[in-house]
Write a structure and sequence with these properties.
The complex is a heterodimer of chains A (408) and B (414). Chain A is of the alpha+beta class and 408 residues long. Chain A is 45% helix and 19% strand. Chain A has two domains: 3-206, Metalloenzyme, LuxS/M16 peptidase-like (Cytochrome Bc1 Complex, Chain A, domain 1), CATH 3.30.830; 226-404, Metalloenzyme, LuxS/M16 peptidase-like (Cytochrome Bc1 Complex, Chain A, domain 1, 2-Layer Sandwich), CATH 3.30.830.10. Chain A is built from 15 helices and eleven strands. In chain A, strand 9 and strand 10 (296-304) form a beta hairpin. Chain A is globular. Chain B is globular and about 60 Å long. In chain B, helix 1 crosses helix 4 (119-137), helix 9 (256-267) packs across helix 12 and helix 9 packs across helix 15. Chain B is of the alpha+beta class and 414 residues long. Chain B contains 15 helices and 13 strands. Chain B has a six-stranded mixed beta sheet, sandwiched between helices. A five-stranded mixed beta sheet of chain B has the order 9-13-10-12-11. A two-stranded antiparallel ribbon of chain B has the order 4-5. Chain B has helices at residues 50-57, 67-76, 101-113, 119-137, 140-152, 165-169, 173-183, 199-210, 256-267, 273-280, 309-325, 332-350, 353-367, 373-381, 385-394; strands spanning 7-12, 18-23, 29-36, 61-62, 65-66, 80-85, 90-97, 190-195, 230-234, 240-248, 288-294, 299-307, 401-406. At the A-B interface, helix 2, helix 4 and helix 12 of A face helix 2, strand 7, helix 4, helix 10 and helix 12 of B.
Chain lengths: 408, 414
């Protein structure tokens, strides 16, 4: 039976843990409430580049030291940057937790040496090139720009070759100093954890970090229907994305939204599966929720034969309209609830999954939710609740962005 | 750390199906994989991709249920599932709450023994496969993997698992139905289950629903000769895709652990050689790595790097240099870091029912018996530095197959 623990240091760093006594491993991570949406255009991509630079050394460790230390702890470790958060995590055998925290915490005060910055810039540029060879990514970036326009969620996470090329180490240092404050971060742990030891170590490694007031802007977004096609004659397939407003990470309706998205666009047995994949119109069709900080979206994705692009788009739009106008059935809702409840339980079995969940809930909502609470919320959803959700979030206005070899 | 050895059991049914199970008392889930000897290597000579089409078509109704009814039945169990082919196997993998597994197995039995294979689903499944083949053209890193296997492995083992377009275009529903009868047999098939299960209950359910399944193993053509050498594919990509492959001992040989430890020194964690020398110190790549994989009689070490065209030659030269350098051996520190990484992964995989189900299948195929977490850990602990370095000296990483995709060809380093 797991238990939730919380402590707070004097400098406002929250420490949260889910102690899972039967686990054989531990997962820990720092999540920072900063991402692409917090960037000014001149420093586009700085959060993500900074995430890389956090691994490149501190006052007492070089990049090679950090990498070798993680390896000698047998750690599975990595980091990621999104529109809204940056997370540095490690999964280790429990006896290595103190050492892993030592490295991770030290990393949170990076040296950001100019030589390392200059060299790592090449790696970022390679990463940008890597993603330019992935049509799904290219399309995702474009629809975020199309849908969110001047809202900061339109900001690219990677940045462009130009913005990264021009970025300076001073700009990165300034960004770090403005955002990486203990009150804007959380240290989370899950699995086989000794919480008292964790807090003592956090005090030792993080207690002297200076406090910092960090603000995030929440401008209004003005959703409007937009339709945009990007032609790339080198592509063999046609790729289609849709975005429309949905519940935010703070709204309880996000549970109903996850179920609605499953009914519409799960891999098997969904509305889009039956109307697009099963008859062979498309080889892939998904629909999912994107609950962000303060606002949210529903995201649709289809890939198909370019010759069928018009018919696919028409079918997709019609299916979404059908859901909006007539709702969904209780039978569909029950099936999706079963699937989502099962996947929730299964990801909750693993320390890494629980740690990520803990971080997100804390950063977005300053709360802890047990697995049982999440399952109870899922259980409450029925066709009527979905109907109420659709009144608030009627799958429109719909932005549609497409990418393919055809003219439109 | 003390860990009670997990309980495992192997039951062999009279019809050739092997059931391998592991009980994991700490989880709520159960995972299963049913693998038949029906991968791309078993596709007919002019029907490459048949297995891929079948892997979709079999889900379009089974055991008297039509497509919608079967989907509803699988969904009502909360099952996460997938069905796909690799070189040797056609596998159906699923995870769910353990209490649902006894109800899931009869549905899987229907799919593998009594698939409806409806006429109106055939063209859609074939079109899907054709679409998947086209989609690979838009994903150069995935395309590289397909081409590298084709270049390095002997036919039919190196075949593109999605298929060959011309073959799929001439496929008929009737042919494919015959193929289903030929390929979907219990002979050589493996059903692996891991999670919160009762061995006796699982055995009874499997005996009841799979016991009367009949048929002998499908034939596979005699392996030919791999093309080898190097191949460049001209394509206007943002990054040059570089893939290398060379032979290694197969998993079933005891020496295979030496190859795996060596590959972990080359490419296990962020302190490993490829990441340090090519990405960290030279900034040449974002993605650069190597890995070990094995068929039953042949092992393979493959390497990958992606780099912008202006720097691709330097990346390839550096990669080959690092491979050659392995021949001189690894240091004690490097070996210990590789070892602790591999041991940790054993423990981490041990927490996951789906990882354990895959692991049991892997062991049955390569070794004919399942290995416990304790055995897997001991296997990593046992080799000495001298043994690993002797292996590297006797198996230099120099004779490689090379495939590149990009706007211009690279010079092959000597």
């Amino acid at each position: 039976m797991s238990t939730f623990k919380h402590a707070k240091l004097a400098n406002n760093l929250d420490i949260i843990a889910e102690v899972m006594p039967t686990s054989t491993t531990a997962a820990i991570g720092f999540m920072v409430k900063t991402g692409a949406r917090d960037e000014e255009p001149a420093v586009s991509g700085v959060s993500h580049f900074l995430e890389h630079m956090m691994f490149k050394g501190t006052a007492r460790r070089s990049a090679a030291d950090i990498n070798r230390e993680f390896d000698s702890l047998g750690a599975r470790n990595n980091a990621f940057t999104s529109n809204e958060v940056t997370c540095y995590w490690a999964q280790i055998l429990p006896e290595f937790l103190p050492s892993a925290l030592d490295v991770l915490a030290d990393m949170m005060r990076p040296a950001l040496r100019v030589d390392d910055f200059t060299m790592e810039k090449n790696v970022i540029l390679e990463e940008i090139s890597l993603y330019l060879d992935k049509p799904g990514h290219v399309l995702y970036e474009r629809i975020m720009e199309d849908h969110f326009a001047s809202h900061p969620l339109a900001n690219s996470i990677l940045g462009s070759k130009e913005s990264i090329g021009e970025l300076t180490q001073e700009q990165m240092r300034h960004y770090f100093d403005q955002h990486y404050g203990p009150g804007n971060m959380v240290l989370a742990a899950a699995g086989q954890i000794n919480f008292d030891q964790l807090v003592q170590l956090a005090e030792k490694y993080c207690g002297q970090w200076p406090t910092l007031a960090v603000e995030r802007r929440y401008p209004a977004v003005k959703p409007a229907s937009r339709r945009h096609h990007i032609r790339d004659e080198k592509l063999k397939r046609h790729y289609l994305c849709t975005l429309c407003p949905g519940p935010s990470a703070q709204e309880m309706e996000r549970f109903a939204a996850a179920i609605l998205a499953d009914v519409i666009g799960d891999h098997d047995g969904s509305r889009l599966f039956w109307s697009l994949v099963e008859p062979g119109l498309a080889e892939e069709a998904d629909f999912s929720t994107f609950p962000h900080d303060g606002l949210g979206s529903f995201f649709g994705y289809v890939s198909c034969d370019p010759a069928k692009a018009a018919r696919v788009e028409e079918t997709l739009v019609k299916e979404l309209a059908r859901v909006r106008d007539a709702g969904v059935t209780n039978e569909e809702v029950e099936r999706s609830k079963t699937k989502i409840a099962t996947s929730t339980v299964m990801s909750g079995e693993l320390p890494l999954g629980r740690m990520r969940n803990l971080c997100s809930q804390w950063i977005y909502n300053r709360q802890f939710r047990t697995l049982e609470e999440d399952l109870a919320e899922i259980e409450k959803v029925d066709a009527m609740r979905i109907g109420e959700l659709l009144e608030q979030y009627p799958l429109s206005p719909l932005t549609i962005t497409t990418l393919g070899p055809g003219a439109e | 750390m003390n860990q009670t050895a997990p309980m495992m059991r192997v039951d062999r049914l009279d019809n050739g199906l092997t059931l391998v199970m592991e009980h994991m008392p700490e989880v709520q889930s159960a995972a299963m994989v049913l693998a038949i000897m029906g991968g791309a290597a078993f596709d007919p000579e002019y029907g490459v991709g048949s297995g891929n089409v079948l892997s979709d078509w079999i889900l379009r109704g089974a055991g008297g249920r039509d497509s919608r009814a079967l989907t509803a039945a699988l969904d009502s169990l909360g099952m996460q599932r997938s069905c796909a082919v690799d070189a040797v196997f056609l596998r159906f993998s699923a995870s769910m709450l353990a209490k649902k597994l006894p109800d899931a197995l009869p549905l899987v039995a229907d799919i593998f023994q009594r698939a409806e294979l409806p006429e109106d689903g055939f063209s859609a499944c074939r079109d899907m496969a054709l679409g998947q083949i086209d989609a690979i053209e838009d994903e150069p890193a995935q395309k590289l993997n397909v081409l590298l296997r084709q270049q390095h492995l002997p036919p039919p083992l190196g075949r593109p698992t999605l298929g060959i377009k011309e073959h799929l275009a001439s496929l008929s529903a009737a042919d494919l139905r015959l193929d289903y009868r030929r390929r979907f047999t219990p002979d050589g098939a493996i059903l692996s289950i891991a999670g919160r299960i009762s061995f006796d209950q699982m055995h009874d359910v499997v005996e009841k629903h799979f016991g009367s399944w009949t048929g002998s193993k499908a034939a596979m053509m005699t392996p030919g000769v791999a093309p080898g050498g190097s191949r460049h594919v001209q394509q206007e990509t943002n990054q040059v895709q570089i893939g290398l492959a060379f032979d290694a001992v197969p998993e079933r040989e005891p020496e295979s652990i030496l190859a795996m430890l060596a590959v972990n020194v080359l490419s296990g964690g962020m302190g490993a050689r490829l990441f340090s020398e090519i990405r960290e110190k030279q900034g040449l790549c974002y993605a650069v790595h190597a890995g070990y994989q094995s068929l039953r009689t042949q092992g393979m070490i493959s390497g990958y790097a992606g780099t912008v065209p202006e720097r691709a030659q330097r990346t390839l030269d550096s990669f080959v240099y690092e491979l050659k350098r392995m021949g001189a051996g690894v240091t004690p520190d490097e070996l210990e870091r590789a070892r602790i990484g591999m041991k940790s992964r054993v423990v981490m995989n041990g927490e996951s029912s789906s990882a354990r189900a895959a692991g049991l299948l892997h062991d049955m195929y390569h070794l004919g018996r399942p290995r416990s977490l304790d055995e897997l850990r001991r296997r990593v602990e046992a080799p000495t530095l001298a043994e690993v370095n002797d292996y590297l000296s006797a198996h230099p990483m120099e004779q490689f197959t090379l495939v590149t995709i990009g706007p211009s060809e690279l010079a092959v380093p000597k």
